[in-house]
Amino acid sequence: MSNYDVDLFVIGAGSGGVRAARIAAGYGVKVAMAEKQFYGGTCVNIGCVPKKLMTYVAGYESAMRDAQGYGWSVGERSLDWPKFITRKNAEIERLNNIYEKMLKNSNVDIHWGAASIIDPHTVRVNDKNITAKRILIATGGKVSVPDIKGAHEHGITSDDIFYLKEQPKRLVVAGVGYIGLEFAGIFNQLGSEVHVIYRRDKILNEGFDSDVREFLNAEMIKKGINFHPKTNIINVEKDGDSYNVHLDNGEVIKADQVLFATGRKPNIDGLGLENIGIELTKGGAIPVNNEEQTTVPSIYALGDVTSRIELTPVALAEGHALVDRLYGGQDRYISYENVPSAIFSNPNASQVGLTESQAREKYPNEIDIYKSEFRGMKMILADSDERTLMKLIVHSKTDKVLGLHMVGQSAGEIVQGFATAIIAGATKSDFDRTIGIHPTSAEEFVTMRTKL
Fold first, then answer.
1. Tell me, what's the pLDDT at 219?
2. How far apart (Å, rounded) are the C-alpha atoms in residues 383 and 67?
3. Which residue of 150, 366, 415, 428 has the smallest Cβ count within 10 Å?
4. Catalytic residue among 111, 121, 152, 438
5. Taking all residues of the chain, what is their mean pLDDT, rounded to a whole number?
C-alpha cells in the first residue's frame, strides 16, 4: 500500500507531460497532473501547430504567384485575416479537447491551476496539498524579451503573434533564430514589409551548418526580406497607430508590429525549486541525470525545462522512455545523437547529424564533403530564381554519412526519411547504390558523386 495520494504527479500538460502521464496510467499507476494554462503546451497552442498553419496560409500566396508562370490566370486576391485566425483558433481548441479526452480516458486526475512543490513528495495546487511518490516537472519554456526601452511595453512575442487582429503590413523582427526566421518568411510571403534586426553577422546559431546559414540568408534576401546584421534595437516608441524602431546605427524603421524572437528560457517561475534544493544551471534550466532525475531523487524533469534539445518530439520520447523504465520494467533510454530538425522558413531548412565544423573537430582530416546547389524543376516555369542546397558530410575512413543538410522546399519532409538511414548507420556507398525517384529534388542526395 502506498503512503502517498498518487504514485506520479506531473506538472505541465504539454507534449512531454501528457505522454508521460498517459503511459504511466496505462501501466496501472495512479497519476495526477496540474496545468494552469492549456492542454498541449507551447507546441499545440502557441508554437509548432499554429505556426505551421501560418506557413500554409503564406504558402498559398506563393503558390498562386508561381502558378501564373504555368499559365494560370490569377486575379486580385486578398487574405481574410480574421477568418484565418478564427479557423486556426478552432483547430487549436479541437486539439485541446483531444488532449483533455486522452487524459481523462486514461484516468489521469487533472488539477487546473498553478502548482508549486512544497517538499520532495508534495505538490500544492489551489490551496490543496497532494503527496506523490514521484514528481515530474514538464513545464516547458517561455519567451524571453530583452531589456530594451519600449520592448515590453510595445513589442510582441511569438505568444502574441498568433492572435493579432490584423496582418501587420510592416513587421520588424528582432532575432534570427528559427522562430524569427519562420515569421519573417511567413509575413514576407503575405506581402508585408519585413525587417530582421540581429546583433550577429550570420543568421541562426552555430548548431546549424555554415553553408546552410549563408545559403538560407541569401535566399531570404532574394525574396525581399531586409536583414540588418550587427545591429541592435535601442528603443521602440509608439507613434500613433504604429511604432518607431530606433537602431544603434541611427536608422529608424516604421513598423505596425515589433516581434521579439530573442530566445526562450525554462518556465520555472512559481515552482518553488529554490525551497527544496533543486540546483539550476546558469541559464535557469533544471539539470538532470541519465534517469531524468534532478538533484532531488524523487523529482524528475524533462523537455524544454531542462534545455537539452528543445524539440517537441524529444520531450515526447523522454516522457515515454522515463515511464517505461519506472513502471514498465524496460531498460529504455533515448539517444540525443542524430536528432533531425527543421526550420519552416521560406525556403525550409532541415538537418540531421553533424555540421561540417562539428565533424572536422571530431574527425580531423577524415571528412569528405559532397554538396549540390540547383534550381528545382518546379521553379523554372514559375520564373522563380529560388535555389536548393543539399550537403552530405562523410567520414572518409568508414564511409559513414555523419551529417545531411538541406535548404529548399519540403526540406523537413525529405530529411525526415533520410534521418532513418543516418540513424541506421548508412554509408555513402549505401546512398550511391540507392536508385533515385525521378524527377524529385530528393534524388539529388543519392546522385552526388563529386567530393569538394
1. 98
2. 10
3. 366
4. 438
5. 97
